[in-house]
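re: ur question from the group chat, yeah i did fold both. here u go
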Amino acid sequence: MIASDQAPLGERSLDLAWFRRELEQEREFRLEQLITLSYDAEVPCSVAVGEVRAALTVGARRALAEIDAALFRLARGTFGACELCGRLLPGQLLAAIPTTRLCLLCERSHIQHDM
């Protein structure tokens, strides 16, 4: 459940407890993944396997940082709003990707700017 009468944000409200639980579960998964990868790194392996482990570790660390940032936005009271323009993020987008921090318009302009 993502919609409720809890924590009004603009014209709609979000069930922040639901998002917090989802993010905390994902955080726990990423921490366990990093622990497993660190133990696996101690086992000798081929160069290719080592490269895959390194890529997985980088991805897990990046995901963990995004989760921590989303939890910080929850604590700060800005979860569900675009970090650049302040527009409300669609509830469906947040439910699918709770770490989302930009609205689609800002995301597009950010991507185009980087190119």
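okk and heres the other one u asked abt
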Amino acid sequence: MRVDKSAVSVQVIPYLAIIAVVAVLTLPKSLQGLQPIDGLVMAIVYFAYLGQAVFHGRQQGRGIQWTKKEMFLKSPIATVI
């Protein structure tokens, strides 16, 4: 299976960073579980991840014209037939 190189910087690395933050926040035994401030930290990290994923490498869209035949050949129904 091939993975697009941009998927690593957009999805994998930030996701692993979120997992690391959650691990660090849940490790201290003296606090006995997550505290409200931990929820705030996780929300900030999640929104940073979401913003990075949405706005990373954003480009202007381009118009594509397809014929009806091309639309049928590219549809999921055509792969079943």
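fwiw on the second one: The radius of gyration is 21 Å. Helices lie at 5-26, 36-55, 68-74, 76-80. idk if thats what u expected
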